[in-house]
Amino acid sequence: EAGVAQSPRYKIIEKRQSVAFWCNPISGHATLYWYQQILGQGPKLLIQFQNNGVVDDSQLPKDRFSAERLKGVDSTLKIQPAKLEDSAVYLCASSLENWDYEQYFGPGTRLTVT
Amino acid sequence: AQKVTQAQTEISVVEKEDVTLDCVYETRDTTYYLFWYKQPPSGELVFLIRRNSFDEQNEISGRYSWNFQKSTSSFNFTITASQVVDSAVYFCALLTASKLTFGTGTRLQVTL
To answer: In this model, does residue A76 exceed pLDDT 70?
Structure first.
């Protein structure tokens, strides 16, 4: 069974530029999550989708971050414009359906904002 | 509010030593799940174990064992006879109906 796929693996941009990350969850997984992991910290949930609807985006900085999952499968997370403090690893995870299932994580995208 | 505390920032041991990683959690929910994840240098989070709040039975899987005690809100993880390949950052996490909350992680360094 293929795992969660993410691209790109690494990205370096200058502040005020835009960037987008892509995630393809495990086939059949209805729930998709985006996490931000700043160096030395645990992952922090940014947004959770159930199929193509948003379940929780309370910690998403909506003035600069946006995410979509139009067909209930792939998802894109965008930052526009980026700030220095956005430097982090962005992890995508998916789970089968309900909240009490294990979340399977992708390899992450390491973003460096200079 | 829910919280996970991993007080040990970094632990260094020599191969074959036993090591215990501590995890203390806080939640008002009566139904919840606890997890341990391993994050090797490659960056991917690897699922190790899940326990629900109604099952306090300890679990052993090879060299790994977990001790869940609701009375002290702790879910500690022990690696027996550690190996160099165990070197990684280990995260404890708490899942309730609202969200998955991670601790800050414990970096384990196993040397020869």
So the answer is: yes
CA separation for the pair B50, B41 (Å, rounded) = 22
pLDDT-flagged residues of chain B (< 70): 98
Residues of B in contact with A50 (CB under 8 A): none
Q: How far is A2 from chain B (nearest CA, A)?
A: 14
* pLDDT reported for residue A1: 65
Task: Provide the Cα torsion B7, B31, A100, B77; round to 10°.
Answer: 30
Identify which of B47, B95, B103 has the shortest CB distance to residue A104: B47
Taking the CA of residue A12 and the nearest CA in chain B, the distance in Å comes to 17
**Are residues A6 and A109 in contact, defined by beta-carbon separation less than 8 angstroms?**
yes
Distance separating alpha carbons of residues B79 and B3, to the nearest angstrom? 24
Q: pLDDT tens across A82-108, in order? A: 999 999 999 999 998 766 678 889 999
Tell me the chain A residues in contact with residue B97 when contact means C-beta distances shorter than 8 Å.
Answer: 99
* Residues B36-65: b if buried by 16+ CB within 10 A, e if exposed: bbbbeeebbbeebbbbebeeeeeeeeeebb
